[in-house]
Amino acid sequence: MGRQRRRPGSGPRVGWAALALLLAAAPARAADLRIGFIDSGRIFQEYADAKEAQGRFDRQVQGWRDEAGEKEKAVRQLRTDVRDMSPILSSLKRQEKEVALQKGIEDYERFVQSIWGPQGRAALENTRATQDVVNQIRAVVEKLAGERGLDLVFDAAGGYIIYADKSLDLTAEVIRRLNERSTSGAAH
């Protein structure tokens, strides 16, 4: 359904070259580097607040689709009226109907652009809803990384992790903490 959610790992990616530079810049420190990873895709699927935000967004999008459908239906009816009634209308009435049709088309196109255009309400609302969830995830990951003394936490959903020991996976713990915060009301 056109999900556009922005995941924590979908921002700037740290590629292998950047990681190599990081490790080369501190060779003595590299041996002590402590790393973990999360799967943000799984977090978004299992975190209650993320699912709730997605549901709200989906309902909002459905409302916009319904409204667009009504506007499109009105334009189709105006087109039919102009086509079917043109032969029997005076030139003034025909012109009025054509003006009404053009206005209906412009209204529909303006509405669609205002919702689904590059700076449309759908993109803005999606960003707003996602940013709240991303901030919550980031806070929990940062706290967990601090508690475990981790230097780096990667996101497996970014596609750069080919192999990692399962003991480095923080995903389940992040989901557990996020859902605990969500049910206790401490997340907001």
- Helical coverage, percent range: 55-70%
User: What value does the average pLDDT take?
Assistant: 84
Coarse shape: rod-shaped
What is the topology, as strand order, of the major beta sheet? 1-2
- Please give the number of β-strands: 2
Radius of gyration: 26 Å
Per DSSP, what share of the residues sits in E-state strands of 2 or more residues?
A: under 5%
Number of helices: 7
Order of helices and strands: HHEHHHHEH
Classify the secondary structure makeup into a structural class.
mainly alpha
Terminal residue distance: 28 Å
Given as residue ranges, the uncertain stretches (5+ residues, pLDDT < 50) are 1-14
For the largest beta-sheet, the strand count, sense and barrel status come to:
2 strands, parallel
GO cellular component, one term: cytosol
Protein name: OmpH family outer membrane protein
GO molecular function: unfolded protein binding
Family: Belongs to the Skp family.
Describe the protein in words:
- Pfam families: OmpH.
- The chain is mainly alpha-helical and 188 residues long.
- It has a domain at 54-118.
- It contains 7 helices and 2 strands, in the order ααβααααβα.
- It has a two-stranded parallel sheet with strand order 1-2.
